[in-house]
Amino acid sequence: MADDFSQSLTPPVSPFAADSLYELTPTRPPCFCCSEVKDDPTGALSTEGYTARGSLKRLLLRLDPAPADYETDTVDIFGFPWVTETALVESTKLLFGLFRQTFFKLESLVQSSCHDFGQAGNLHYEAEDLRQQCVSFLQYVKVFLHRYLEPSGCLDASYSHPYEELEAQLPSALLEELFGIILLIGRLKDLPANVQSAFTIHNQGKIFPPSWHLLHLHLDIHWSVLEILHLLGHKMQGQVVYAHQFVNLTGENLTDISLFDEHLCNLLCDLTGLAIGKFSKVRPTEALSSHHYLCTCTKELWVLLMYLLEYRNKVLRTQSFWGYMNSLLRPLVSGKPAAEQFTGLPTHCKDPLGFTWWLVTHLAMLGQYNILDISTLSIYLLCVRMHVHCCLSLCLLWEPSTSAVSTLWDYYSKNLSASFTVPWLGMSGLGTLCKTPLALLEQARSCCSPPPLRSPGYTQLYRSANSFHIFLRVLALCLAQDRAGGVPQRQIKGRIYSKFSPKKMQELSEGGLMNFLLLFLVVARQVELEDVASRACELLGCLPSNCPPAHRSLVWRGQLSLLLLFQERGLDVGAQATWLASSFNDTAKEFYNKTTEVSRRLALWGPLGSYLEGVAEVFETRSCCQPSCLL
Q1: Cα–Cα dist 174/243, whole Å
Q2: In what residue span(s) does the Protein MMS22-like N-terminal domain sit (predicted)?
Q3: Residue 517 placed within a domain
Q4: Rounded Cα distance, 406 and 439, in Å
Q5: Distance from chain centroid for Cα 189
Q6: Domain hosting residue 129, numbered range
Q7: What is the pLDDT of residue 158?
């Protein structure tokens, strides 16, 4: 009869199945992992990381860190079964002792690992298992705090049960253990060279050396310590947690707030130090295409820190992420000693200001929301193309800043006749190629419509445009904020007008005059065209009558470009055409005058021919203008 019955009544469930079939395998906790992530310009992070798995979101929303896990009566930690609801209270020191022991095993594995490829697989899986044990324990601590920790009263109060006394001591004991872990792992900057070298392992395979696992465990621990301290502060409902045993032994105060801030500052300092090391190998032409992080895990760590600190700033009124970065970077730019909390930052940086622009720009790309006014970064402008390119990036990511434009304009107004070219990049921009009014107007249009951020055209802007042309894009963005002629527009326009005088106009070189014309074309496109054109004509009238012929060609070319702009808007071109015709007639009379020397006639023929070609281009572009008004 027994043979007539099958063990499986309703597959796959069977009353005869082993109990192990009913045990749910715990979900693998999130961790830093860059083994399957390529450097994606769209910003994709690892699917196993804290962001993609929703760990960060649950932390900020005060939700259970792992709602589907640790639901059974017992939990396996470091190979031993523990009572889920009491283990952390009853065995705090023992559990953290096992954590340290497991961490030491992984460190020993790194030191003893050899280059035998036959053992690579075994070493990988052993190191991965040790790391997962540590990460799983830290995840259990987070879950325990969220589910079971309740704020208690005075520690001196009498308790009816020994467990209640241990439970009341847990926050203080946990704080001391976290402090011990921080001392155990040390700082990222102090990691041995063979461990730090794992940052450069970018193969897409499945087998990694123990050093790779140890390095990423360091990142897991650094972030988890901040998570646990944040959770602890939330669960204690504003009560400050003191490490009582530490205070009794050393006489120094150690609180959850001070430990969070100290660990955070050290972590930001170390990440910035790693970025400084990478910046030393970045060429200026690659500034925006070369990231500040060494692998996508450090990129994700920056993102986690940014969002956590901004959340704490809004809810707890603590310092924001950009406040910390400002305190960290300001001394670096000014050459002053670093603040006391930011110890260990490398003192040697090839270009502190350039590095600051570079780092802030890439960090802003990670955040992509307006947190800090660019003016609070204390801009110290140099004529470096990368700096202005970074400024343009920040204006696209955040909002254009009037104060930033004013600072930039103060520099360019004093150096308007400079070439702004980088010798090894060749002639940049179209300044020397705008030989027709339409080409000049098209360049002004391109300055008013920068390519999308991260597009190939934007990345190549560093090579295709000089720093003044990039500044014009920043200016156009700022003027475009208020097309109704608001206060920012009037302020900027007034600052631009105030920098020009008859003496200034007469001192402009050919390149300076080209920059002047392009500047006023950009401003004219963004604000009141008639007012800007009138001011431009007034200033151009300050040029001496015997100015070089090349200057005369540029003046006419710029005037014809303004005329094209008038026609685009459907405005009356009479005043502009009259001014042009009068200037052309004066030059033509000099050309035909019998007393004019031959050399002078040859010099004047260039501007006259250029003018006639420009007028023909205007006629071809727009049919509403009568030839007689320009000749």
Answers
A1: 8
A2: 29-370, 384-628
A3: yes
A4: 28
A5: 22
A6: 41-155+162-242
A7: 63
